[in-house]
TrEMBL record:
This is beta-glucosidase. InterPro entries: Cellulose_Degrad_GH3, Fn3-like, GH, Glyco_hydro_3_AS, Glyco_hydro_3_C, Glyco_hydro_3_C_sf, Glyco_hydro_3_N, Glyco_hydro_3_N_sf. It is an enzyme of class 3 (hydrolase). It catalyses: Hydrolysis of terminal, non-reducing beta-D-glucosyl residues with release of beta-D-glucose. It comes from the Bacteria. Residues 643-712 form the Fibronectin type III-like domain. Signal peptide: none annotated. Its EC number is 3.2.1.21. The keyword Signal applies. Belongs to the glycosyl hydrolase 3 family. GO terms for molecular function: beta-glucosidase activity. It holds the Pfam family Glyco_hydro_3_C. Keywords: Glycosidase, Hydrolase, Signal.
Amino acid sequence: MKMKQYEQRIQTLLSNMTLEEKIGQIQQCGPSLVGAFDVSFDELLNMMFDGRISKEEFDRLMGTAEQDFHEEDLRAGKIGSYNGIGDSAIANRLQKIAVEETRLGIPLLFGYDVIHGFRTVTPIPLAESCACEPALWEKTGRVAAEEATAAGVHLTFAPMVDVARDARWGRISEGAGEDVLLNSAYGAAKVKGFQGDDLSKPDAMAACVKHFAAYGAGEAGRDYNRVDMSMQRLWEEYMPPYKACIDSGARAVMPAFNDINGVPCTANPWLLRDILREKWGFDGLVISDSNAIAECVDHGLAEDKRDAAKQAILAGMEMDMSSNSYAEYLKNLVESGEVPECVVDEAAADVLRIKFELGLFDNPYQTSEERERGAMLTEGSRAVAREAAVKSMVLLKNENHILPLKADARIGIFGALAADQGQMTGAWAIGARPEDCVSIVEACGARGISYQYSEDGKDLLKIAASSDVLVAAIGERKEESGEAASRADITLRKEDLALVRDLLATGKPVAVVLFNGRPLAIPELAEHVPAILEAWHPGVEAGPAILDVLFGDVNPSGKLTTTFPASSGQCPMYYAHINTGRPGGKSKFTSKYLDAPVEPVYPFGYGLSYTTFAYDNLAAEQTGEAVHVSVSVTNTGSRDGDEIVQCYVQDVAAKRVRPVRQLKGFEKVSLRAGETKTVDFVIPFAELSYYDWNMEEVPCEGILKVYVGGDSRAELSREIRI
Ligand code: BGC
């Protein structure tokens, strides 16, 4: 359908809608659970999390629960959208009610958190970002969309592109790490993958970029915490990824839970109107975070829920996810003249528009149970998940070439995570099923490897005696990262460290496979364990992918997209810091700690390979309105391998202090053993500018130092004057 045509139909529909029906369109309903418990579902969840009931008791009660879709409200035109339904039969049943039984027959929009895969769970976003491969990010986004849309989903609450520099924040797992450029490239690729080339196709899923803005900068890494920062920093370090997603075509935006400089994003007219609409020209849909409108009362911005509804809608918040604030108060607010009806019209129009764009008016039933059955966990999607997992892993250490293991090596495997399928998905994988995941132990069996397994270290000495190498699978459980999972202490569990010490004491070669949703402080491992593979939470193909790397079928190439601090107290820690007037050093009065190093354990951009790479012939020159950089990279080892070549710049002296380094380009190159390739980067001047004290954008001038290499500590550099 041509754009003009549906703009007209939107206006016609609006003119036929009652105020209640318009408010219905901007109401997103999360089905509630009713069951054999006397408390609300939220309270039941809390009871489990604070230990009043066990996980088993919770599961038992949930087994008796039924979903309530509020169908009477739906029939009355009071619901325009649902969140959290990933089941084609349910979606089509509700859609039929909307289309056939409501007065105007407007189809429903189904939203869902498809964060890193639907059934075919791919690595957590933080992991996948380490692959530094936009084509891969797009491909896994496509697989996610094909599956989720088959299950009835129209819109995903992803990508999350919150720059995250504090390893204590649990949601660092959900984005592309600490860098501005990487988050921008990652988000733009995901949007393309989710949405495909035509949003009206049945396998296209609208992207909702989140959490706008700066949700990753919460104080002390505590989830939902305040964000207070200079405008210069906000614009230079946090805003670009959201903009990149919008430029890539994202049709929805979710404002963040946090406040920025005192005003919650949910009801922030500067953010939602001045920036998003006026400055960036966004013409899609704005959807609140869950219950966020009502939470403006807790923030202390609104006196009560009615006031919250008023401030939010006036600020430009369109769809209310789950708080019922609009459903309860908007009609009265319009009737009292406090909210002009045209504001509600605008919001409803944006909901109708996305429904037209998705083709829902032409074909409200874009899937069927049959399509859903055939779409899940295909051979092809599993292959993509395995490829993504392999490319996401980062080899942190490999002393004495312990890895790759010989094909006939006898391995002793230790740690519960080696056999726990359910843990492989990591946080935010709500469509995942534990039984879909392949563990390390299972994969060893399938591959015919000679192995012995001990979950808790029992028989450790016996197993060690008859093994050539010992592998410890340790780290975080999936509940230890993600939303509401901040940690003040990002070290390993005591029992994990004890296990590793016992393994090292046997004198056998030890390799650690780390599972985690955030950077961990692992100085002891880094010092004493000869081989460490960062596997993150790899998804359904965890086991086979880990063995691909351990046995060298694939040469690892992932690079860290977040700094690994030496201790929790160093957080937030990130490579693109400023120098201060007294950079950390040996002498007393410098910027450092008495009891921790100033350096991380592993820097941003770091990751080893089974081969080695050398950089040479770095050249940098100004060509027109850009800096042109070229470098030659040689595979100096005896195996073929991929290297992620990174280009950093430093604006040596400027009107404001600038980061010591900023990533301005990255490229993955495949090099056969002994091969050399030239890699070029073109950095437009526009990408070097910054904001001065008065928030005027100023060009980078004077000396620019360019560094190229395999991580953020790259030493090869050139200076040019621009
Ligand atoms: C999260 C969002 C998510 C939403 C819907 C919220 O708690 O912050 O990222 O999309 O729930 O499930």
